[in-house]
Write a structure and sequence with these properties.
The chain contains ten helices and three strands, in the order H-E-H-H-E-E-H-H-H-H-H-H-H. By secondary structure, it is mostly helical.
Length: 254
């Protein structure tokens, strides 16, 4: 037996190796779902997924367990899995969580932003404007995400982790509904400018209010583009708390 052969591998080394495999499979499949490369409602066997991802059964099974805990996949009979469909209930639940968490985080973060951080926000806003002018949504996403993360970054590790996960899930909806209807770029310029104005003034209350309205408007756009009717009572309740109104912005007038 040669030194360093598989049979001589230590248990700790095997666990690390297996952990890396699970992470790779999880991250690759998660990215494909979030980017829409695997469409909502798609049903696949674990054998098909293993071939697609060049993965063994054990890392695939663990990766699927993690994705199920995130609500991205649903297990079916006969070892099949289905990518979670889009539903208005899920959109509402997602944005209720985002408004409650991110608006609270903005209340904590914005009054404490240093001048250098305000300068970073201005720079990110400038990058967003460049990509908006180019109609480059893919390029726009990176500074857009970072802009929002800087407005909420003082809320702590657990909050930051949840905010990032919710952001990823919301992006899945935004990308899907923007395929048939390009995003309202000029509207986003105005909304992000109001967020920047609040940050420059150190006004956490106003930043929180503008963020709530911004996200409520996104839900309104999604509902409008889906041509659906929804009361959205939970969303209206949390909007009332953070924005002082339970009226959702009218997509036709925004």
């Amino acid at each position: 037996m040669t030194p360093g052969s598989a049979s001589e591998e230590k248990p700790s080394e095997r666990r690390v190796r297996d952990g890396h495999r699970v992470t790779r499979v999880h991250d690759e499949l998660r990215d494909q779902i979030l980017r829409g490369e695997i469409a909502p409602g798609t049903s696949m066997s674990q054998v098909e997924l293993a071939q697609l991802l060049d993965a063994g059964r054990t890392p695939l099974r663990e990766a699927l367990r993690l994705l199920q805990s995130e609500g991205l996949i649903i297990t079916e009979p006969n070892r099949n899995v289905r990518v979670a469909e889009f539903t208005l209930d899920d959109v509402e639940d997602l944005y209720v969580m985002r408004i409650a968490l991110e608006c609270s985080a903005a209340l904590i973060t914005v009054p404490d932003l240093a001048p250098a951080e305000i300068a970073e926000l201005r720079g990110l806003k400038a990058q967003m404007e460049y990509f908006e002018a180019e109609r480059d949504h893919q390029g726009w996403e990176a500074p857009h995400r970072e802009f929002h993360m800087k407005l909420t970054g003082r809320a702590g590790r657990r909050s930051a982790q949840t905010i990032r996960q919710l952001w990823d899930h919301a992006g899945r909806y935004r990308r899907f509904y923007e395929l048939a209807d390009p995003p309202p770029w000029l509207l986003r310029v105005a909304e992000h400018q109001r967020l920047l104005d609040a940050a420059e003034g150190g006004d956490g209350e106003e930043a929180s209010r503008q963020l709530a309205l911004h996200y409520a408007g996104t839900v309104g756009d999604i509902v409008h583009r889906a041509d659906a009717q929804a009361e959205l009572l939970a969303l209206r309740a949390v909007l009332k708390k953070f924005a002082g109104t339970d009226r959702l912005p009218d997509p036709s007038k925004r």
